[in-house]
Design a protein that fits this description.
alpha/beta, eight-stranded mixed beta sheet
Length: about 220
């Protein structure tokens, strides 16, 4: 059994141009074949669960696990929350008190069996300048800024799944510095158009996820 962990934006789905829509279809077909042979496919993204779930439903992308918010939470393909490393209620309150209410506009909150909100707040989004007093949290720059636990990484998510599934044969593909540790740890491939942080790191290069899957099949 093999496991492939793929970033979403800029990797699995590059953009909405016709050429890349064709490439996305090739990726999806390759993923289906990969999974049919008993392998595991994981989407690892900085997006929150609701955002990435909307994408996989929209494009009918098959997957086994979703690692969201840069390793903060992991869901299986039946929407079960398997892992969470989230902001506490005190940490959320500290962040909220640092900004005006007009700056804050989004929270991702996941329920567990105990329905305890204290361990289910993943991140808080805001528009505006960053705050020095929040340096103990990790800041993500996307369409809006988000704060998550400082220690959360995509590599952490991969390590959890490695132990959870007892898989050793693991591959990864991505295009941003968020994936650097992940690509270095697990047979990594960087996209041709990647963050400069991935250059000169002895990481293999690819132009698409389906080409990575093709190479894995030969291993």
């Amino acid at each position: 059994m093999k496991m492939l962990i793929s970033d979403y934006d800029g990797t699995l789905n590059v953009n909405d141009d016709l050429l890349f829509k064709i490439d996305l279809k090739l990726n999806i077909n390759a993923i289906k074949e990969f999974r049919c042979k008993g392998n595991i496919f994981v989407i690892s993204t900085a997006r929150g669960y609701n955002s990435i779930k909307e994408e996989v439903v929209k494009y009918n992308i098959p997957y086994d696990y979703l690692t969201c918010n840069n390793g903060s939470v992991i869901f299986d393909n039946k929407d079960n929350l398997l892992y969470a490393n989230t902001l506490s209620i005190d940490e959320l309150g500290y962040i909220k008190n640092t900004f005006s209410d007009k700056s804050l506009f989004y929270f991702d909150i996941y329920e567990n069996e105990q329905e305890d909100i204290k361990d289910n707040i993943v991140y808080v989004g805001f528009r505006g300048k960053t705050k020095k007093q929040l340096s103990n949290f990790k800041l993500q720059y996307r369409n809006f800024h988000t704060y998550i636990k400082n220690e959360c990484t995509k590599l952490d998510g991969a390590n959890f799944l490695k132990n959870y599934l007892k898989i050793e044969d693991i591959y990864a593909v991505g295009d941003s510095k968020d994936e650097l540790e992940l690509l270095q740890a697990y047979n990594g491939y960087k996209m041709i158009f990647s963050d400069p942080a991935l250059l000169n790191k002895n990481i293999q290069t690819t132009s698409s996820v389906h080409k990575v899957i093709k190479k894995i099949k030969k291993v």
